[in-house]
Design brief:
The chain has three domains: 5-268, Rossmann fold, CATH 3.40.50.300; 273-319, no CATH class; 332-545, Nucleotidyltransferase, domain 5. It has an eight-stranded mixed β-sheet with strand order 5-6-7-4-8-9-3-10, sandwiched between helices. Helix content is 38%, strand content 16%. The protein has 19 helices and 19 strands. It is of the alpha/beta class. It has helices at residues 5-16, 24-39, 49-58, 78-89, 113-126, 142-157, 211-219, 241-254, 294-304, 308-319, 332-336, 344-347, 389-392, 400-411, 425-439, 452-460, 473-489, 498-504, 529-545; strands at 45-47, 90-92, 102-106, 134-139, 166-167, 172-174, 179-185, 198-202, 227-232, 262-266, 352-357, 365-372, 378-387, 416-418, 443-446, 466-468, 492-493, 508-511, 517-520. Helix 1 packs across helix 4 (78-89).
Amino acid sequence: MSLTWRTGQQYAHDVNDGLINACHWTRKACARFIDDMANGDKRGLVFDVGKTQEVIDFYNYLPHIKGEWVGQKIQPSPWQVFILINLFGWYWKKNNQRRFKYAYIEVSRKNGKSTFVAPIGLYMTQWDNEPGAEVYSAATSRDQARIVFDAARDMTRQSSLRYHLQAFNHSVCHEASASSFKPLASDSDTLEGKNTHCAIIDELHAHKNRRVYDVLELSCAARRQPLLLVITTAGSDRTGICYEVRNYLTKVLEGVIDDDSCFGMIYTLDDPEQWKNPDVWIQANPNLGISVKLEDMQRLCQKAQQNPAAASEFKRKRLDIWGAGEDVFFNMELWSRCPALASEEQLSLMPCYFGLDLASKLDITALVALFCDGDRRYHIKVHFWLPEVQIDDQRSGKSHHVQQLYKAWAEQKLLTLTPGQIVDYDAIRQTINDWADRYHPLEIAYDPWGATQLATQLAEEDERVMTEVGQTVKQLSDPMKEIQALIIDGRLHHDRHPVMNWMMSNVTARVDRNENVFPNKDTPDNKIDGPVALVTAMARAMMKEAPDDGYHDSPIPDFVMTG
């Protein structure tokens, strides 16, 4: 019996209802779909059942080209149907264009990735109504790029598609519409100058640099409804482009970032410590029992328990567990549930401390006002600045996603742009003084690195009480732990400012031998200026309540913390 789009819908409900053992990120993606089905029309979304079914039916024409099912028609698994109905079902009512332009699929090896995505490339070559469609299977090497392409070429040759497409060794073409599907490697001399309709980037975790992703992302800009599809397994480099794209998706799924163009699924273990437990393997292997054999997994797990190198390989490739890295420090689920900020009238009556983070003249500056309302409850208000040139300047080094975030926040007046290439300290000083006149802070706490001139002006000319707070373990550990405890207890009030939400979700922590912590970030793009300003202000608020007892006896790290 042929699959229908409702197979994917049912998968979402089964995950949401707990009938399928799925990880946190899979549950988030399914919950997003269910909410969109109920409320998407209110913001202009339309779910096109006919188009979705057309894509699902397309698989009926294509055979498996290797393995135990060779020659049989491909039948996508329910989780794959769910991905298809998202990618091809959602449209904007205002212009009838596809909603999702970027997709990130992360799943363990042997879950049929190539067999699943090769038909997508073929479909978008001819049947997506895009004349001159350029479709690419891209990877870090030519051999890797050919895995998806060769599957698509052989599917074409062994099916009725050969009457519509010409399958050559290095391309699959539709001559009438001047469309083609080709492999593309990072070392290709022709990587530049593309006008991409669909790019399938295979195993992005293996890319040593971001060139392929950035070039293809930029090459999609001229198309009406392009698709940049990443399909990968977990890697070990948390500073690379793959983890950056993954990290962005997790923030979309958490609701920290609002991006209707981005879709994704992550199949991994909720608790990596449970890697020896067969009951949770399905979280990272949605095709367990189909293309992923339980006996094979058990054999590899036994080997992994005897050999540390094999254990690392088994966790990463077969359970989609990323290599060494730091976890987000603050619980974002609880952060989103924190109580609302008090009214302006109430805030003006509370004692408060300002925290200022001037991390870089070329990037975001953050001001946080921390108000104390008694019973160890705190309220925070934030303000952010950015030099306007940093939004569009390609030389800034920021990823496309981050620049788009900055641009959207600036348009929404959530990020104040200052003229020129470097931050305008006069504008910052003016806002600080406006706030100080309104709230009367007991102190303005600041990191002395890079802020000496502004601090001197505020102290001498504006008569503000300025207090240095060095960015060290000694100064920041207890305030970080206090903020963490306040979030858990629901005693930190805030206004859910999108920029602050994003920055809080970027905070990781380094831990010394005495379990003291200090703020960190995985990548340069993951800014944490707002949280650092908050921790700086909290350091002074706590100092007023309890003087330093000399507990911190670990050495001060030899680096300067910046946002």
